[in-house]
Amino acid sequence: MNDVARALGRAAISQLHPKMLWLAVWPFLVALIVWVVIGYACRQVVVAWLVGIMAGTVLGGWIDAGFVWLGFDGGLDFVMRLVYLAMVFAAMVLTALVIIATVAMPTVVAWVAARDYPALAMKQGGNGLGSFGNALWVGVVFTIGFIVTLPLWLIAPLAFLLPLAWWGWATARMFRYDALIVHASREERVALYARHGNAFFAIGLMVSLLNFVPPFFVLVPIFGGLAFTHYALHALERLREERGEAGIANIIGVLS
Q1: Which of 79, 90, 140, 240 has the fewest other C-beta atoms within 10 Å?
Q2: Average pLDDT over all residues of the chain
Q3: How confident is the model at residue 198, as a pLDDT?
Q4: Range 192-209 burial, b when 16+ CB lie within 10 A, else e
């Protein structure tokens, strides 16, 4: 956990640089504009669909009965509108994550590596196409899982834990790949996934907690990219030291 705390601390410091602050803002603005338009245009259709799904269930009946007991009608429609807002917000954050992972992460990795890991050799274990494919796969799984588990949000405390778990998983799966593709070989990347899988997920969860703290959720995508880059490159550096490659990497760094 010391390495996780170290990565988060370094990411917080890196986030204050003007270049990183701008990288945090523009992907979120793009995602915000896109999903405000889509969310407004689709609100009636999707809410009606959600109400239709829940109306014939025991849980839907409980919700309506509970609101009637409180003196309000249309309780199920109201709750499904809240669920819809949560879905749109999740889609917005996921879109910002995808933009960062596929477009901005090369800048993040190059910036962090130049400042903190200048002697780390680049083995190019991945490429932009792999990054896009990884982001697409994560996005599909996230979307399906998010929708399938929506009814469970109505059970406290799952309304907090499930979104956090999904965001943490998606953040980890996206950024661990992009943080390593330039410097790690494919074999090194797989080894680091196996060794540090729990740590990557822990970073994803901690970063995703910011989604619940306005206005810090704007920083989640780029802060996550910085945290995963700091952690992954440090872990890669230690892996090579264990394998006796550090000396070679340092010599290459000095000569270049």
Answers
A1: 140
A2: 87
A3: 96
A4: bbeebeebbbbbbbbbbe
Asked if 126 and 175 count as a contact pair (C-beta separation under 8 A), the reply is no
With beta carbons less than 8 A apart as the criterion, state whether 135 and 102 touch.
yes
Residue 38 forms part of a structural domain: no
Asked whether the CA dihedral 189, 207, 153, 174 is positive or negative, the reply is: negative
Establish if 178 belongs to a structural domain.
Answer: yes
Q: How many CB atoms sit inside 10 A of residue 44's CB? A: 10
50 lies in some domain = no
The 10s digit of each residue's pLDDT in 38-86 is: 999 999 999 999 888 888 788 888 888 888 888 888 888 898 899 899 8
Domain count, the chain: 1
DSSP secondary structure code for residue 91 in this structure:
H
Closest CA to 39 of 87, 106, 97: 87
Determine whether 143 is exposed, middle or buried from the number of CB atoms within 10 Å of its CB (0-12, 13-18, 19+): middle
Asked if pLDDT for residue 144 goes beyond 50, the answer is: yes
CA distance 130 to 211: 27
Residue span of the structural domain in which 229 resides: 2-29+91-255
Residue 210 in any domain: the answer is yes
Instruction: State how far the Cα of 41 lies from the Cα of 180, in Å rounded to an integer.
Output: 39
The DSSP symbol for 185 reads -
In 3D space, the residue among 202, 11, 189 whose CA is nearest the CA of residue 108 turns out to be: 11
Please give the Cα distance from 47 to 20 (Å, whole number).
37
Which amino acid is it at 172? A
Cα separation, 242 vs 62, whole angstroms: 58
For residue range 182-223, list pLDDT tens digits in order: 999 999 999 999 999 999 999 999 999 987 887 787 787 889
